[in-house]
Amino acid sequence: MAAVPDIRRIGLIGYGAAGRSCAALLAAETDCRVMVLTRRPPADGIPERVAFSADLDALIAWKPDAIIEAASADAFAEMVPDCLDSGIDVVPASVGALQSPEMAARIHAICARSGARLIIPAGAVGGLDYIAAAALTGNIAVTYTSRKPPAAWAGELAALDLADTARTEPVTLFEGSAPEAAKLYPRNLNAGLTIALAAGFERTRVRVIADPGVTRNTHEIAITGAAGDAVLRFENRASPDNPKTSAITALSLVATALRRYAPVGT
């Protein structure tokens, strides 16, 4: 008698732009079953093999192999600790939530107790393996520069009365540490904190620029250190539903979650 294949189950927190993309990808490209945690389930257009719940306990009781968090830093703080405490691995989009030392310490303690892992995706950037390896020398400096079209920062530029300026020249909105950047812009600077987790917070500087000269969400990483130097540049198409977010982010979340099923992986 042939063995019955295991049913692959992926949980998903959030059904905004990134969450919808993740659910659609999982439904179209995999044989996974998906349960989405959201307060407002859609009335129609639901992908095949996707179910919805407004109850975190129900999602945990469903026993997914992993949960993708694609909501917000607030949702991360409210829900991810309980998921990890239940022994379920989590792939978070809201990496910026870890800018809080208290939250980071709490997550470390929960994972040590439960055996679950918080698996950080590359998100909108790459080269994290190089950065983490170079950081082992103890001699590394990383500068991450985020350049996005002014439309991605419309609210921030208007608040600073710099909208007109940004139409003709680059405007630097922030320069400082990765935790500071993530705290100021929790929804759109997760990449900076992801890089800092690989390099070390004290070794990472972040610049945020609204640049009329770019048409894509552009990420530049300059690395210098004892192991060598590198310059990486990523020009990502923006999500059609959210100009502040790169379309590759949802792809990265799904790819990271699916990697746990691969017999051989990177």
From TrEMBL:
<feature type="binding site">
    <location>
        <position position="124"/>
    </location>
    <ligand>
        <name>NAD(+)</name>
    </ligand>
</feature>
<dbReference type="GO" id="GO:0050661">
    <property type="term" value="F:NADP binding"/>
</dbReference>
<feature type="domain" description="Aspartate dehydrogenase">
    <location>
        <begin position="168"/>
        <end position="254"/>
    </location>
</feature>
<dbReference type="InterPro" id="IPR005106">
    <property type="entry name" value="Asp/hSer_DH_NAD-bd"/>
</dbReference>
<keyword id="KW-0521">NADP</keyword>
<feature type="domain" description="Aspartate/homoserine dehydrogenase NAD-binding">
    <location>
        <begin position="14"/>
        <end position="121"/>
    </location>
</feature>
<dbReference type="InterPro" id="IPR011182">
    <property type="entry name" value="L-Asp_DH"/>
</dbReference>
<keyword id="KW-0520">NAD</keyword>
<feature type="binding site">
    <location>
        <position position="190"/>
    </location>
    <ligand>
        <name>NAD(+)</name>
    </ligand>
</feature>
<keyword id="KW-0560">Oxidoreductase</keyword>
<comment type="similarity">
    <text>Belongs to the L-aspartate dehydrogenase family.</text>
</comment>
<dbReference type="GO" id="GO:0033735">
    <property type="term" value="F:aspartate dehydrogenase [NAD(P)+] activity"/>
</dbReference>
<dbReference type="GO" id="GO:0009435">
    <property type="term" value="P:NAD+ biosynthetic process"/>
</dbReference>
<dbReference type="Pfam" id="PF03447">
    <property type="entry name" value="NAD_binding_3"/>
</dbReference>
<dbReference type="InterPro" id="IPR020626">
    <property type="entry name" value="Asp_DH_prok"/>
</dbReference>
<comment type="function">
    <text>Specifically catalyzes the NAD or NADP-dependent dehydrogenation of L-aspartate to iminoaspartate.</text>
</comment>
<feature type="active site">
    <location>
        <position position="219"/>
    </location>
</feature>
<dbReference type="GO" id="GO:0016639">
    <property type="term" value="F:oxidoreductase activity, acting on the CH-NH2 group of donors, NAD or NADP as acceptor"/>
</dbReference>
<protein>
    <recommendedName>
        <fullName>L-aspartate dehydrogenase</fullName>
        <ecNumber>1.4.1.21</ecNumber>
    </recommendedName>
</protein>
<dbReference type="GO" id="GO:0051287">
    <property type="term" value="F:NAD binding"/>
</dbReference>
<keyword id="KW-0662">Pyridine nucleotide biosynthesis</keyword>
<dbReference type="Pfam" id="PF01958">
    <property type="entry name" value="Asp_DH_C"/>
</dbReference>
<dbReference type="InterPro" id="IPR002811">
    <property type="entry name" value="Asp_DH"/>
</dbReference>
<dbReference type="InterPro" id="IPR036291">
    <property type="entry name" value="NAD(P)-bd_dom_sf"/>
</dbReference>
<comment type="pathway">
    <text>Cofactor biosynthesis; NAD(+) biosynthesis; iminoaspartate from L-aspartate (dehydrogenase route): step 1/1.</text>
</comment>
